[in-house]
Amino acid sequence: MQRLTRRNGYVYFPSARNVGRDPKLRTEDGALRLYGRMAKELASAGINLNFGPVVDLNTNPANPVIGRRKRSFGSDPKTVTELARAFIIAHRDANVLTSPKHFPAMARAVATATRCCPTSRARGGRASLIPIACLPRKACSTW
Asked: Distances in Å between the alpha carbon of 3 and those of 11, 50, 123, 130, 133?
């Protein structure tokens, strides 16, 4: 979600889904450049915390929180982890904190967590845990 809009004078940034699908942006260099620009814009606006990236796997494109809003980098755990890592590093380099989210398997939920608890069908299996398990190690490896 982008709350700082072009209408208010801010740069437009593509959705996570579009980043995950774009061959130029989904590379490490492409993602670092894109998210570096985002982080610098946030910092210049006095914002020091970005509640992202979304590290849910897009396993249910109809999910109202993840799939329909284009908030996931994709369904591949490796791609999601690599793009989330670039997001975190770019923000860290601009002194903007990040907060990877949501709970693993949120993308499989049938209902939104704010309206109702996800059903038992929301279990995402081991693949949903990969980004959450790998990010601390991968994002911190350059510190």
From this structure: 11, 11, 30, 28, 29
